Amino acid sequence: MAGINLKLTWRIRLLIVSLAIAFAGIFLYSPLLLLAIFLIGLIYILLGIFLKNDYYDLIFLSFMILLVLFATIPAFLQDGVSIKSVDSNSTAMEQGFTQGEIIVSINNEKIESLEDYTQLITSIYPSEEPIKTVFKTSSGNEIIYFSSEAPKIVVAEISKTNIKTGLDLSGGSRALVKAENRSLTQAEVRDLVDVISNRLNVYGIADMAIAPVSDLSGENFMLVEIAGTTPDDLRDLIGQQGKFEAKIGNETVFVGGADNGIASVGTSGQQAGIRECDQAQDGTHYCNFQFTIYLTQQAAERHARITSELEVNRTQQGNYLSEKLDLYVDGTLLDSLLISEGLKGQVTTQISISGSGQGETREDAITNTEKDMKHLQTILKTGSLPYKLEIVKLDTISPTLGKEFIRSILIAGVAALFAISLVIFFRYRNIKSVLALLLTSISEIIIILGISSLFNVNFDLPAIAGVLATIGTGIDSQIIVLDETHSKVQLSIKQKIKRAFKIILGAYFTALVALLPLIWAGAGLLKGFAITTIIGISIGVLITRPAFTDIIKKIEE
Amino acid sequence: MAINLKQKAIRFHDKYYKHLLLIPIIILILVFIQLGMTYSSTGEFFKKDISLTGGTTATISIPANQEQLELELSDKLDGVETRTIYDLITREQKAIIIQTKSSAEETRQVLEEYFQTELTEENSSFEFTGASLSESFFKQLLIAIGIAFLFMAIVVFILFRNFVPSLAVIISAFADIMMTLGLVNLLGMEMSTAGIVAFLMLIGYSVDTDILLTTHCLKRSEGGINKRIFTAFKTGITMTLTSILALGFALAIVSSFSIVLSKIFLILLIGLGFDILNTWITNVSILKWHLNKKSKE
Hints:
heterodimer; A: alpha+beta; six-stranded antiparallel beta sheet
C-alpha cells in the first residue's frame, strides 16, 4: 500500500466528512452515533491540517467507513411494519398500541412486509368471538390484543431511510384554508389552527401537520397536511364552521363547544352507538345513532326554563312537549327530537342526541351512520369558529402512483447523468475528469438528501426539480473549472482555479438572489423547490466544487 | 485550412458583428407582435392552464380509452383536457389525467358515473385549486419573477461595476425570457405554475454563460478581444450543450408520466436554445462594440 499516495487536501476531507454525515443522516436512527461521526469528522479535518503522515487519511478513512457501516447497517436489517396511527378511543389504544412502534411478529409469526401483516390480520379478524392475538414489537413489548375486530391502527412498511417523502410522492392530502370573504389576522389563523388541530385530534387523525402560512401579498392561510389515508369527510372537518345549535322554538338552549354549555360528550360503550338499522321502502338501508351529552348547570337550567313554558301533547306513541328540540349544524337542521313529558321544567344535565345515516347496503348504512355520529361528536366537543371557511386548495393524492414516479425519476436522472458524461468525455477525452465530475454530482445529491433527512424537510416534487436544477448548475461550474485548468495561460493551477471560482461565485450569487422571492410566493407551496436549490447550490460552492477542483489538481499534477 | 477558416470567421465577425444584432432585434420585434396579438384577442399575454386559473386535476389509475373519455366528459365538465400516463418500459397505461375547470366534487361525481365505480385513494388522486387562490398565486409568481430579475440585475452590476457590459448581460437575459415566452405561445403551450418556475430557473441558467463571457472579456488581460470571446465560447457552449442534452434525455423519459416536470424541462430546453443566440450574438456584439469603442478612445 505504500505506493499509493493518499494524502488528501482539507477540501477533499471536508467532502468525505460531509458525505459520511449525509449517509448517517439518511440511514441512521441514533443521534448519538451521528454526533460521534460529526465529531470524529471534525477532528479528522482539523488534525489533518497539522499532521503530515502518509497513512493519516488511510487510517482515518477506514475508521470512518467502518463507523458509518456499523451505524447504518441495522436500519437495513430491520423487518416489520411500523404503526403510523392508532384510532383514539379504540380498543387498540386501550390495549397498548402506540404510534411509532414497529410490529415484528404476530402470534410468533414473523412480519416482514405490509402484505404479511394484512394477510395475517384478515385471516384472524373479524371473528364471531373475541380472539386473543399477541403482537410483538421491535422494542420487545408484547401487546396482547383481545377483540373480535381487527385493531384500529394504520400500519406502513418501514422506510429504510429517513428521507421524508412529500405528499405528492407518498400520498395523503393537503388543504389550504382561509376565511370566506375576509382576511384573517395572524392571531386569528393561529386560533384557527388550534381549533382545527383539536377537531382532527378528536376525530382520530394522528399523522398530520397544521400550520399557519402567509404569502407575498400578506394573506394568511391555514395549511393542513395529512399523510397516508385521507378521511372521507376531510372537506367538512377542515372547512366547516362547525356551528352547532340546539333550539326549542326560537330559543337557543345550548351550542357546541366546551365553553358554551356542553360539559362532555359520550363516545363509547353505553353512552354512544348505533341503535337500530332497517331497510326503507325504496330499498335503501338506514341506521339510527344515539349518544349522550352532558350539559353544564347553566345550560341545563336554561333547558328547564324553556321547557317549563311548553304544553304537553298527548299522543298514542307517548306524551311529548309541544315543541321539539331542533339540532342545527351550520344553520341546517340536522334532526328534531321529541321531548318527553317527564323533562318538562326539569334541570337535567344529561341529554340524548340522535340522528341517522343511510346507505345502499346495510354495511354502507352502518359505516355512514358511524361517520355522521363521529362527526357530530367532534363538532360538539370542539365548538365553532366565528367565521365561515373557504377551502382554496384541496389535494388528495393516491400513494400508488408515487412509487412509480420515484422509479421513473431515478431512471431520468441516470439517463441525464449518462448524457452529461458522454459530452464531457468527448470534449476532454479524459475518463478521470468524467469520473470526478460524476462523483461530484452524485455527492451533491447525497448531501442534499442527507440535509433534508437531518432537518426533517419533506422531499416532494418541487424538491426533486430543485435537485435537478442543482445538478445542472453544478455541472456548468465544473466545466468552467475543467476549461480554466486546461487553458494554456502561463499561470499556476492555483491561480487558474481562482479565476474559475470568480465566475462560479458570480453565477452562484445571481442564482441565489433569483430564488429568494420564491420562498414566500404562493403561500410557500414552491418553497421546497427554492430551499432545495439554495441548499444544493450552496453545498456546491462551499463543499463539492472546492473538492472537485482539488481532485482535478491532483489529476493534472 | 483550419486556420484559414478561423481567420475568415474572425474577419467576418469583426466586420459584421454589429449587423448580427439585427437577428435578436428582429426576433424580439416578432415576439412583441405575437404577444400583442395574443393579448388583443384573449386579454392575456399567454394561455393559462388550470394551475393558474383554478380547477381540478384528477389522476385515475383505471384503464380507459382516453379519446372516448374526453368526448364523454367534455359535455358534463368545463374545459376538459385529458392525458395518458404510460409505464416507461412496458408502455402499459398507468393512469389517465383529467384536467377541468370544474370543482373537485363535480369532477369526482362525473368520473364515478363514467367509470361505474367508487373512486378511492387506491385508484385516484384529486387536486383542486380555487380560482381566487390561482389568481393570487399567478400575480405573486409574476412579482417573484420581477424581483428575481431585479436582484439578478443588481448582482450583475455589483459584479462588474461597469454599466454597458452589465446592461448587456441583463438585456440578453431579458431577450432570452421574451423569446422563450414567444415560442411557448406559438407552440400553443399553456402556462402553468411549473412553467413560471421554469422561467425563474431560466434567469439563473441564462445568466451563467453571460457572466462567463463578461468575466473573460473584462477581467482577463491575455489575448485580444476575439481570443477571449472564443475561449469563453468554447467553455460556454460546452456548458449549454451538456445541459441541453441532459434536459433532452430527461424530457424524453419524464414526458410519459409527469406533466409538471415535462413542462419545466421543455421550457428550459427552449430557453437554453435561445440562450446560445443571446449570449453569443446579443451579448457578444454589445460587449465587443463597447470594448472596441473604449479602446479607440
